[in-house]
């Protein structure tokens, strides 16, 4: 007959696993609490974009859908030699544009530099 003894690990396996996960969450500074650091999404309009458009080429630089959370930033850099319209924003040649999204919402419209020439920007809480 086998002796029936349980090790401490077998008896407390589940609670110890929960404790280990809890400690891991604390150590990673809130990763399990649902908090996230603000993100920056960058879009670069390359040099020669207008030349490509003038030649009749379809140019897709901006995704047709962008998703942000409140506190995130959109950064657009225009490396072309002409002002470009991307999404709802007009960015001068050689300039950078930054926008911090401060409230939730959905924005959509025409964009010549996006797939299907349409964009949707979704900002979540």
State the major sheet.
Answer: 3 strands, mixed
Count of β-strands = 8
- The H-level CATH homologous superfamily of the largest domain, spelled out, is Cupredoxins -  blue copper proteins
Distance between the termini: 61 Å
Total helical segments: 2
The count of domains is 2
In terms of structural class, how would the helical and strand content be classed? alpha/beta
What is the CATH top level name of the largest domain? Mainly Beta
User: What are the segments in which pLDDT stays under 50 over at least 5 consecutive residues?
Assistant: 7-31
Strand order of the largest sheet: 1-3-6
Order of helices and strands: HEHEEEEEEE
Spatial shape: globular
The name CATH uses for the topology of the largest domain is Immunoglobulin-like
Architecture overview:
The protein has two domains: 1-35; 40-124, Sandwich (Immunoglobulin-like). The chain is built from two helices and eight strands, in the order αβαβββββββ. The protein has helices at residues 8-27, 49-54; strands at 40-45, 65-69, 73-78, 84-86, 89-91, 96-100, 105-110, 118-124. A three-stranded mixed sheet has the order 1-3-6, with no helix packed on it. It has a three-stranded mixed sheet with strand order 2-8-7, with no helix packed on it. A two-stranded antiparallel ribbon has the order 4-5. A hairpin with a 2-residue loop joins strand 4 (84-86) and strand 5. It starts with 7 loop residues before the first helix and ends with a strand.
What is the structure about, briefly put?
The chain is an alpha/beta fold and 125 residues long. The chain has helices spanning 8-27, 49-54, and strands spanning 40-45, 65-69, 73-78, 84-86, 89-91, 96-100, 105-110, 118-124. It has two domains: 1-35; 40-124, Cupredoxins -  blue copper proteins (Immunoglobulin-like, Sandwich).
């Amino acid at each position: 007959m086998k002796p029936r003894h349980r090790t401490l690990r077998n008896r407390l396996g589940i609670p110890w696993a929960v404790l280990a996960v809890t400690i891991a969450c604390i150590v990673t500074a809130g990763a399990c609490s649902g908090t996230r650091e603000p993100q920056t999404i960058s879009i670069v309009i390359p040099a020669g974009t207008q030349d490509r458009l003038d030649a009749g080429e379809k140019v897709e630089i901006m995704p047709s859908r962008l998703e942000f959370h409140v506190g995130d930033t959109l950064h657009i850099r225009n490396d072309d030699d002409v002002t470009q319209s991307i999404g709802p924003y007009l960015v001068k040649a050689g300039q950078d544009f930054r926008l911090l999204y401060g409230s939730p919402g959905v924005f959509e419209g025409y964009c010549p530099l996006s797939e299907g020439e349409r964009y949707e920007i979704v900002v979540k809480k």
